[in-house]
Structure to design on (167 residues):
């Protein structure tokens, strides 16, 4: 991973990369050609970038007791909604309406980043992230990922680490 923030012509200053740069956080941008026919944005990113799926994390938005909450889990697995609710002391979690997630975060589905969101949401990062020196998350548009340390991601998003993913 780069010591200093690295931008490329394709990073184009998404809100996520702008937030990382402003915070002085070390990150690397990875771009790939997004295939609109791809069934899974996260699996597509892992394959296109040649990165193990357990190091590429997807950003999901859930409705947790009426409050939109971000869940960041490996693309190799799924979000455990009961575990997400428990991680934030709530009773129930369901996947958020995609239009509400897009409107609230300012990103489109498949490109929702946990960073630089229009409205900062409560965030939970799957505990498996801490097993890696760096992980990749969406940089704010389809075909663009950022690689950074899980501790930097947690710090910048105010994330709680909890076991919210399942294989």
């Amino acid at each position: 991973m780069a010591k200093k923030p690295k931008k490329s012509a394709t990073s184009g200053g998404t809100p996520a990369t702008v937030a990382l740069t402003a915070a002085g956080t070390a990150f690397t941008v990875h771009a790939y050609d997004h295939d609109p026919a791809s069934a899974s944005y996260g699996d597509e990113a892992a394959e296109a970038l040649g990165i193990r799926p357990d190091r590429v994390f997807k950003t999901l938005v859930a409705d947790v007791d009426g409050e939109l909450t971000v869940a960041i889990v490996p693309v190799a697995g799924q979000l455990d909604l009961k575990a997400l609710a428990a991680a934030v002391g709530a009773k129930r979690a369901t996947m958020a309406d995609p239009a509400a997630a897009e409107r609230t975060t300012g990103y489109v589905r498949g490109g929702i980043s946990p960073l630089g969101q229009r409205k900062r949401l409560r965030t939970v990062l799957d505990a498996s992230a801490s097993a890696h020196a760096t992980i990749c998350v969406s940089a704010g548009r389809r075909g663009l990922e950022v690689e950074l340390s899980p501790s930097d991601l947690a710090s910048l998003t105010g994330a709680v680490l909890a076991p919210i993913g399942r294989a």
